[in-house]
Amino acid sequence: MANLADRLKLLSQPVNRQLLKATRRGIEKESLRVSPNGFLAQTPHPLALGSKLTHPYITTDYSEALLEFITPAFTDIDTTLGFQHDLHRFTQQHLADELLWVNSMPCILTGDENIPIAYYGESNIGKMKYIYREGLAHRYGKAMQTIAGIHYNFSLAPEVWSLLSDYEQTSLHEKNQHDLQSSSYLNLIRNFRRLSWLLMYLFGASPAVCRSFFSHTNHQLQDFDDYTVYLPYATSLRMSDLGYQNNAQSGLNICYNTLPTYIESLEHAIRTPFPDYEKIGRTKDGHYLQLNTNILQIENEYYNAIRPKRTIESGERPARALQARGIEYIEVRCLDLNPFDAIGINASQAAFMDVFLTYCALAESPTITTPECEAITHNFTHVVLEGRKPGLQLQKQGKLILLAHWAKEIIDSLMPVAALLDDAHGANHHQESLQQELQKVENPELTPSGQLLHTLSEKQYSFSEFTLIQSKQHAETFKQTPIAADTQQMLEVLVKQSLQQQAEIEAAPQEAFETFLANYYT
Q1: What mean pLDDT is reported for the chain?
Q2: Interatomic CA distance for residues 81 and 72, integer angstroms
Q3: Where do the Glutamate--cysteine ligase domain residues begin and end (predicted)?
Q4: How far apart are CA 314 and CA 309, in angstroms?
Q5: From CA 491, how far away is CA 497, in angstroms rounded?
Q6: Are 150 and 239 in contact (CB under 8 A)?
């Protein structure tokens, strides 16, 4: 495998540079619906938004009140973000007096009985979605189902992988495109895991949470005020365990060295019973409590910061799709909503993500050993809990290094990639994004987590008061910016189409649910 400098030189050739303009990214953004006074909405998913089962862009994730906005994958950052803005504007039209909560950690909660699970209708696929979420509630508690985040979907043009393989004449050259692409994306994922602590430092925005989130006192957080708990140097409580120790998944230890071992690890977890979940039971009095009593009900239950992905066909399991057709793109899952941005993410952050992920794809990526896997977990955990702590040290190649020093090293390594992307796009926003993030390394108070805690202290706001004010301000922004007429019409048509599609699914003959479920797993 050639080194990063050789790969960048190859891609900088005018005929090849254009391939980088074909990089695609899509954004999936979750956001709670809340009442005007900051409590979780108890209303069903608005009918005016269409069917959450079949709408391609507006659905729900876990709780009935947790909206999810999904963009297609575009080759232009501004187009991706613009589509997200349009989805938010359209949604705000149909929320009456409700608001979109702008922080990853939830609003004021009043107990599990007031956290509704998303309902998807009476078709078999709708029932399966509901039972899966009910299983999550039994396993992890309903409050965990109100946490929101941003998923950043990313892919390089397939021709990039073929170009590099031909140039380097590696063993991958003899493989088919699926194997080549899968191996290349696993390289990206391993490098991402090594460096993802930096994303938590730069973009973590959940250092505090409303006290109502906890139904117990076993959380090890500190009192900020009567209504807020926090950790003074935390970046992303969302990505911590928050006192919930998931013993079932802790033994999976997936480090992404090969696609077959990744798939087998998931398959094993879906087949292997877990004693605590067996105690819950699969059914009670004829009512399903969870899809199964195994470590994972389905692949998506595996909580991780990044996933290899493949577009799936109806009724197809993700692991089987990866096995059959390889990795198509990656999904970054560790990004918090930034409450200072209307849709939780801005163009500069997206540009940084493109540089970071392109670097992870092109840099050398040896397999991860067990000691390195442990160091990766250590670094990630420490940054989410105390990333802004002065003098914090992380583990790098068996030695300790100051977070700030390593962060600067990484950003320096990203600079040539940013320059190449800017050359390809005829702009300089990638290099500008790196300079902006470098300021956060030099001054931790400029990070979203630092800004949030500073605002709470300066204004003497509780977490919920601050987030409610931000939510109202962003709602006004959406209301004051009209949607283009053709976009408005397209979204209105999708509402009608999605409702009709769900009606047709439910009207079609349904096999016994137990048979449907057995067929899904086999």
Answers
A1: 94
A2: 11
A3: 8-383
A4: 15
A5: 10
A6: no
